[in-house]
Design brief:
Length: 365
């Protein structure tokens, strides 16, 4: 930090302490014209180890709890930079430097959630009635409405609460940090029209550094480009196209598939379990497949090996062949005889006659 900037900040700190009550209004109106003071205060906030940070935060608190609107607006313009510095210091566990900033943010929060009477503030908006003209519609185009008792009871304007009531906080924790900082940014957005260019620049810097949502940012950029093309605004077109051209293409391509998620192995469903269940049919089928593989391996073996045939003494082969058995190297006459005997047995079963079987005896040669 330069010596001149340090002198400007020290003069600003001492000037307000000796200021009379009647001169506060004129003093507050001239603060926004002091550009050198604003830039010096940004340097103090960004320099975390500066000894001027604590008195500057105390001065901001004195400004904000005063009833002068310009003093509150002057303090509010540094809110994005204060939030960003607090988040940076909280991640680095620098409690000594972040203590004064945390106290200032909590003070602004506790002042904003209460009204002048000390009650919890409710932030709300009113839904306009279609029976009254506005910049968006004419009541004559809607048509005549019957003035019934129910219509007259609903004639009042509807009020919608979008924030509040909020509880008071004594310290910032991981549980309430998001709620407090979101409410502070809501207060900042309500006065966005009165913020100078350095404050808007600080807000953009904080948002671009803190936000990592590529899909949402790309959609917002497309909306800005569409509006700029529709209204033929040259400066927004130039800036939006420059931002789009400077984006890293790798990060955008990585998010085209959608929202990032964690892949988790799920348990199999009931249909999947029943399909793989072990039954008697599956065991029989597995045994048949195994026998067919064994038979195929035997048939495809070396033709030089000698196959010993089985000779039936009785020439009767009407009994059933068990699983895994196979008549090897049958002659053509034996195959015809076996087929004829199987046909006779099938006709006997069809007519209801008892089936006659003979014991098979084989002779190994």
């Amino acid at each position: 930090m330069l010596t001149t900037e340090r002198g400007v900040v020290e003069e600003w700190l001492s000037e307000f302490k000796t200021l009379p009550e009647a001169s506060i209004t004129s003093y507050a109106a001239g603060l926004k014209e002091k550009t050198s003071l604003v830039s010096a205060l940004y340097e103090v906030i960004q320099e975390h180890q500066s000894e001027l940070l604590e008195p500057v935060c105390h001065q901001f608190f004195e400004f904000y709890r005063s009833k002068e609107k310009n003093l509150r607006t002057f303090t509010l313009q540094f809110l994005p930079e204060l939030i960003w510095c607090y988040l940076s210091l909280s991640t680095s566990r620098d409690l000594q430097s972040s203590g004064c900033i945390e106290a200032l943010l909590l003070s602004i929060y506790n002042l904003e959630i209460m009204d002048e009477q000390g009650h919890s503030k409710l932030l709300s908006f009113t839904i306009p009635s279609l029976s009254k003209p506005s910049v968006f519609h004419e009541p004559s185009s809607i048509g005549s409405m019957a003035l019934t008792e129910g219509a007259l009871s609903q004639h009042g304007l509807a009020r919608v609460v979008y924030s509040g009531p909020h509880p008071q906080r004594e310290m910032l924790t991981a549980q309430n940090r998001f709620e407090v900082l979101s409410f502070l940014l809501l207060c900042y957005n309500s006065a966005l029209n009165f913020m100078p260019a350095p404050s808007i620049r600080s807000l953009c810097h904080m948002s671009s550094s803190y936000n990592g949502e590529w899909d949402a940012a790309r959609r917002a950029l497309d909306d800005v480009l569409y509006r700029a093309q529709l209204e033929l605004f040259p400066e927004p077109l130039l800036v939006a196209n420059a931002i789009k051209a400077s984006l890293p293409q790798g990060a955008i391509k990585g998010t085209k598939e959608g929202t990032k998620c964690i892949q988790v192995e799920i348990a199999p469903t009931s249909s999947r379990i029943s399909r793989n269940a072990v039954t008697s049919m599956s065991i029989r089928g597995h045994r048949w497949k195994r026998n067919e593989q064994n038979d195929t391996s035997i048939d495809s073996s070396d033709p030089g090996n000698l196959v010993i045939p089985e000779i039936s003494v009785t020439n009767v082969s009407g009994d059933r062949i068990g699983n895994g058995e196979r008549v090897k190297s049958l002659t053509e006459n034996d195959a015809q005889h076996i087929q004829a005997m199987q046909d006779i047995c099938a006709e006997a079963r069809a007519e209801g006659k008892p089936e006659i079987r003979r014991q098979k005896s084989t002779l190994q040669i």
